[in-house]
Write a structure and sequence with these properties.
Structural class: alpha/beta
Strand order of the largest sheet: 1-6-2-5
Radius of gyration: 36 Å
Helix content: 55-70%
Oligomer: single chain
Largest sheet: 4 strands, parallel
Number of helices: 35
Length: 773
């Protein structure tokens, strides 16, 4: 007998009814379904008696690529109906599509994503012809409300779409493979029928391809050597299915279509009007009986006006908006397009969308196989007393507290919902010895169970899986040092710092390609703290962190030597990077491969390079001093005393070696006093902002010591603390001086400035210690 091809739209009640009726009528020998062929031998798992929605989760990893995808099924998915009706009819069931890991699916995270983007021009023309806003409304208008003659209309619809769209190479590969299954099943079935259920886009091509060719059963492709892959069933949810929350396959409003599948369009519309009203009243919105009557009346009027035999989804939604929303709407109604709700949507519209989306979550049968990680995580949570609700405080300095912390962080890295951290260390230099978490072990919506199954793709234990995820994140970060630093800190929190050599390799490659010296410095500062001090997290002396320190120091020095630029405000993040390199050279060069002599050479060259920015030259001089350079700092300060660059050079020096100012033997304070005091008023105003920024590197106690030193040099009594307390804000004083100078210049230009006034203006300039302080 002939093969019967049924082209469908995924997650369509109309197509599900058609599939059901065809299988019941033909009672075929084979039911072939678009689905992952490598799961074909486990179709029985799908038929254990789950409560949909559920999905086949597939994963694949090799050295070059990581891929995950889902094949979701709800009660009204044609594929789900085909499997259940086929089993009831005694048919052999087969999935006939390429596996999810195959390169044909490389760009897709959802097998059942509709192909409408490939034929957008055709659907847009049809939408204009039928005067509807989008494909979802068009589909309802053509198929969901009026089932009579649906098979013929579907054939015409998909024939038109495929006739005007070109299939890509991925589709061609899939269709050729599926056709092999069709031919083999037809040959094996003899005189019994075969039913083939695939996306409607593929149907015309399959009909042609199945007409000729071999009749051997095709081989199920296997992942290449060295790759890891597999599939498991996971519970799914209407929220994950819904286009209004970002899902780009099938149709939006899954709760509406569930009601449509179960009860028909009239009953679905009636029930959902009541649900919307109940939700609005529950949110404190006033909805009267008259409003409810008006909504039903308007829905009925729109249904008749649009030529529908029963209310369609948008008839219902438009009727509700007309009856219940009295305000002007600032944005388009969301069902006139596809995608997530925009921020600021009207509260009533939000509730309407939520009511039609629904909150159903699937449930797997208790006999469903799961990856080893599920049992491992469940046992670990019970052993550590984390399988409960409430707040917990973890002492990181105790073995049990650290173990519990690592378990929770591994779940966090794996995106398994269980706990939220309220407090704890935020960086490698953060001396916090406890964490506070809030646990929610109820898993009422099944998200944690689903997330654990999906995380099982990464390894059999929480430690293995977390390390694999960190590998993946490291590879994805590339040369982005902010992301790499976050991965390293997560590795420390998870206790996975030295578990994977791939992390070290990826980090080394990322650092070698990094060009942001500031980001490198931030990463180095965090990692150095973890390597030097963190015996709590177990990273002190870590080989991984040691490698990162070596790579970061070399890269920072290499980048610093190549920086060029004229006078500009000091780059504080760049100075922090050089300071982090200094700390590594001072504290880690004995244990790590850090060449202090080479670093000293770089510092000397940068300090003497006139093309380098002044702050970097000052920092390089400071670095050289900390590494043993014996040059005279007072002389270097004199050499950098140009007003437009002086403060920025000092900022670099103070960021790396502020002790040079405080050391009486270096005579730097006296030189600074002399140089600042020798500035005229214009020069002083130019230099003042940068000078103030430079002295911000000194903490209050050290600024007080500098002020006291100035008083002592001048033989004045009093305390340094009093000198720091200027009667007016220094910047306000500077602005006043600048205004005085502009007025003086204007008066002089007009010939109105007397010598006596000029002298008073000069005398009004504050002392150096008053302005700089």
């Amino acid at each position: 007998m002939a093969v019967t091809f049924v082209g469908v739209r995924h997650h369509s009640p109309a197509c599900a009814r058609l599939v059901r009726d065809v299988i019941r009528r033909l009672r075929p020998a084979y039911v072939l379904v678009e689905g992952p062929a490598d799961f074909g031998g486990r179709i029985g798992e799908l038929l254990l008696g789950h409560l949909p929605p559920v999905a086949v989760f597939s994963y694949y990893r090799d050295a070059e690529r990581v891929h995950a995808s889902w094949s979701p099924f709800c009660a009204y998915s044609p594929e789900w109906v085909a499997l259940n009706e086929g089993r009831a009819a005694g048919a052999e069931l087969r999935f006939i599509d390429l596996p999810a890991w195959h390169p044909a699916f490389a760009g897709r995270s959802n097998r059942y994503a509709d192909a409408e983007r490939r034929y957008a021009e055709v659907t847009e023309r049809l939408c204009r012809e039928f005067a509807v806003d989008n494909t979802d409304i068009l589909w309802d208008h053509l198929f969901e409300i009026d089932a009579e003659g649906a098979a013929e209309r579907l054939d015409a619809y998909f024939g038109l779409l495929r006739g005007e769209a070109e299939a890509g190479g991925d589709d061609t590969a899939r269709e050729s493979y599926m056709a092999e299954w069709v031919r083999a099943a037809e040959a094996d079935a003899g005189d019994r029928p075969v039913v083939v259920v695939t996306g409607g886009f593929h149907k015309p091509a399959l009909e042609a391809l199945a007409a000729s060719g071999g009749t051997e059963w095709p081989r199920v492709p296997e992942p290449p050597d060295g790759a890891a892959g597999g599939s498991f069933l996971v519970p799914y949810s209407f929220r994950r299915l819904d286009a209004f929350t970002g899902y780009q396959s099938g149709m939006p409003s899954p709760e509406y279509y569930q009601r449509l599948w179960e009860d028909g369009p009239e009953a679905a519309a009636e029930a959902l009007v009541e649900t919307v009203v109940a939700r609005l009243r529950g949110r404190g919105q006033v909805v009267s009986t008259a409003d409810l009557i008006a909504a039903r009346t308007l829905t009925g009027g729109l249904t008749r006006l649009r030529g529908h035999s029963a209310p369609a989804r948008t008839d219902l939604l438009d009727g509700l908006v007309s009856a219940l929303v009295n305000d002007d709407l600032d944005q388009r109604l969301p069902w006139t397009s596809r995608g997530p709700l925009a921020p600021g949507a009207h509260p009533a519209v939000v509730e309407m969308v939520a009511a039609l989306s629904g909150d159903r979550t699937g449930r797997l049968h208790s006999d469903t196989p799961a990856p080893p990680l599920v049992d491992h995580a469940t046992a670990e949570l019970a052993r550590l007393g984390l399988d409960r609700d409430g707040r917990v405080v973890l002492k990181l300095a105790t073995p049990r507290g650290l173990e519990r912390s690592r378990t929770l962080h591994r779940l966090r890295v794996l995106r398994v919902p269980l706990a939220e951290r309220e407090a704890g260390p935020e960086t490698g230099a953060d001396p916090v010895l406890e964490e506070r978490w809030v646990l929610d072990a109820s898993d009422r919506d099944g998200r944690r169970h689903a997330a654990l199954i999906e995380a099982g793709a990464y390894g059999p234990t929480l430690a293995d899986a977390a390390a694999a995820v960190l590998d993946e994140r490291t590879a994805a970060a590339g040369a982005d040092m902010d992301d790499l630093a976050a991965v390293l800190f997560d590795a420390a929190l998870c206790g996975c710092a030295d578990q994977s050599g791939r992390i070290a390799e990826s980090i080394a490659a990322g650092v070698a390609g990094a060009s942001d010296i500031a980001a490198l410095g931030a990463a180095l500062e965090s990692v150095l703290g973890l390597w030097r001090h963190d015996r709590v997290l177990g990273t002190a002396g870590s080989p991984l962190f040691g490698t990162v320190i070596e790579e970061c120091v070399d890269r920072i020095l290499w980048l610093a030597e190549g920086v060029r630029g004229g006078p500009a405000p000091a780059d504080l993040r760049r100075l922090s990077a050089v300071a982090a390199a200094r700390d590594a050279l001072l504290h880690a060069s004995g244990a790590l491969r850090l060449d202090r002599d080479a670093a000293l050479g770089v510092a000397r060259r940068v300090a003497a390079e006139p093309g380098a920015p002044p702050d970097l030259r000052g920092a390089a001089f400071g670095l050289a001093r900390t590494l043993g350079e014996a040059s005279d700092p007072a002389r270097a300060v004199r050499g950098a005393a140009a007003p437009e660059t002086f403060g920025d050079w000092l900022a670099g020096l103070f960021a790396l070696a502020r002790q040079e100012v405080l050391d009486p033997g270096a005579a730097v304070l006296g030189v600074l006093d002399e140089l600042v005091g020798g500035l005229d008023q214009t020069e002083f105003l130019v230099a003042l902002p940068a000078l103030r920024q430079a002295f911000e590197f000194f903490p209050p106690r050290e600024r007080e010591a500098i002020a006291q030193g100035l008083l002592d040099r001048r033989g004045l009594s009093g305390s340094g603390r009093a000198l720091l307390r200027a009667p007016d804000p220094p910047l306000l004083t500077a602005e006043a001086l600048a205004l005085d100078a502009r007025v003086d210049r204007a008066l002089a230009a007009a010939g109105l400035l007397t010598a006596e006034a000029d002298g008073q203006g000069a005398e009004s300039r504050p002392t150096a210690e008053e302005g700089a302080s």
